[in-house]
Amino acid sequence: MNNKKRIQEKFLNAMKLKDGTPLISVDLLDWLISQEFFMKPAAIKHHGNYTGGLFDHSLKVMENLVKITEKLDIKWQNPRSPYIVGMFHDLCKLDNYIFENGKWTYNPDSILKGHGEKSIILLSQFMTLTEEEIMCIRFHMGAYETDDWDSYDKAIRKYETVLWTHTADMYASKVTGV
Q1: CA atoms within 13 A on the CB side of 39
Q2: How far apart are CA 83 and CA 156, in angstroms?
Q3: Which residues of 69-81 are buried (b: 16+ CB within 10 A; e: fewer)?
Q4: Are residues 116 and 91 in contact, defined by beta-carbon separation less than 8 angstroms?
Q5: For the chain, where are the E strands, in sequence order?
Q6: pLDDT for 130
Q7: CA 36 to CA 100: how far, in whole Å?
Q8: Phi, psi of 22 (to 5 degrees)
Q9: pLDDT band for position 116 (50/70/90)?
Q10: Statement: residue 47 has pLDDT above 90
Q11: Where residue 113 falls among pLDDT bands split at 50, 70, 90?
């Protein structure tokens, strides 16, 4: 089995509830493959700045969020949420980078801007998100959301999972380096 197939199989295994219920559609998987989700970096100058870094980072955030959920017995509106939020919080990065002259560089032709909002727009093409999932993805940057601090604060007060999503993301990027 080649590396690409192994990574996709790892993804499919991760995207199941504990009872084995799959969390994604074939259409979403096909789209992720076409957008090179499993090949793109998570960043160019920061965590996950290598080929495949976006998937590695997303998987680590998902794993962190699932562990936090289990350890703290957090109740989500939908049991799929820590998986969906963790894995797809950074879909916005899919068209941010292109591979040119042997290295990843910024894509000057990227049209849709934003971070959390862009991820929500992209993911909403394939599934209906709960308000909680939307808030978690929108505000996953946490304290780095300096332009909308009041809304971030309100989102945390309504859904504690917003804070845990940010924590899972920061742990993956700052502590584990992915």
Answers
A1: 14
A2: 19
A3: beeeeeebeeebb
A4: no
A5: 97-100, 103-106
A6: 98
A7: 15
A8: -70, 145
A9: confident
A10: no
A11: confident
Tokens 């945390």 label which residue? Answer: 156
Compute the mean pLDDT over every residue in the chain, rounded to the nearest whole number. 91
Give strand pairing partners of 16: 22
> In the block, which residue shows the tokens 């080929």?
51
**Strand partners of residue 104:** 99
How far is Cα 22 from Cα 84, in angstroms, rounded to an integer? Answer: 11
Give CA torsion, residues 53, 56, 61, 63, to 10 deg: 180
Closest to 152 (Cα-Cα) out of 36, 28, 41, 162: 162
Q: What is the torsional sign of CA 16, 17, 20, 22?
A: negative
